[in-house]
């Protein structure tokens, strides 16, 4: 009721993400109306946002004890992965408010809110699987130790099926969301210069989940050399070409 009889506001933006090479929109709007007497008003608002993001990284997932062919024992990275994470984030929501002030003594305000966040994503990882190769009878050669850790070396698998694979490619596809509902009623009654009766009640519900998650995994024997002495772990595969799916 503090706004003019009609009030309309809106905004629109575009955001560019360099890594994903995408332009994505964001927009919001609000419209408000009240009667000429200023005793009743309605306000409606809405927002929409989309973001397509991408994250690239190299990671070492855990360490374990290993022994080289020359009898050296130290910790070694269990998995060295080249990870690619892509996600489409979509947010949209709306809110509404009704305000009723028939007199200076009584005011009633009802508000409601709905918000939805979709967060589907794909997480891919191309992994040099040290622990599986060595656990399946593979070998560690040309090893270099620093501070109790193998920082360079060559891992070769023994071949075979699931056990002993030196190279693994994982893809996780997830369908995820979060959703919120909210509503409340606020009543204020002034009995005079001294007394005020204020009543307020509301209800909120929120839920979210990764509704579905799919996993696709492929593996191969072969081997790889690794070097984790620099700022980023380096891996070169032997007998497997990372850009050739048939391998």
Q: Which terms would index this structure?
A:
mainly beta; 72% strand; elongated; 4-stranded antiparallel sheet; 7-stranded antiparallel sheet; 247 residues; 1 helix
Distance between the termini: 68 Å
Strand order of the largest sheet: 1-2-3-6-7-10-11
- Biggest sheet details: 7 strands, antiparallel
Cα radius of gyration in angstroms: 30 Å
Uncertain runs are: none
Strand fraction equals over 45%
Integer average pLDDT: 93
One letter per element, helices H and strands E, the order comes to EEEEEEEHEEEEEE
* DSSP E strands, number: 13
Task: Please estimate the helix content.
Answer: under 10%
Task: Give an overview of the whole structure.
This protein is mainly β and 247 residues long. 2% of the residues lie in helices and 72% in strands. The protein has 1 helix and 13 strands. The chain has one helix at residues 130-135; strands at residues 6-17, 22-34, 40-60, 63-67, 73-77, 79-100, 106-129, 139-146, 149-156, 167-190, 196-220, 223-227, 234-238. Strands 1-2-3-6-7-10-11 form a 7-stranded antiparallel beta sheet. The longest helix is centred in the middle third of the chain and has 6 residues, at 130-135.
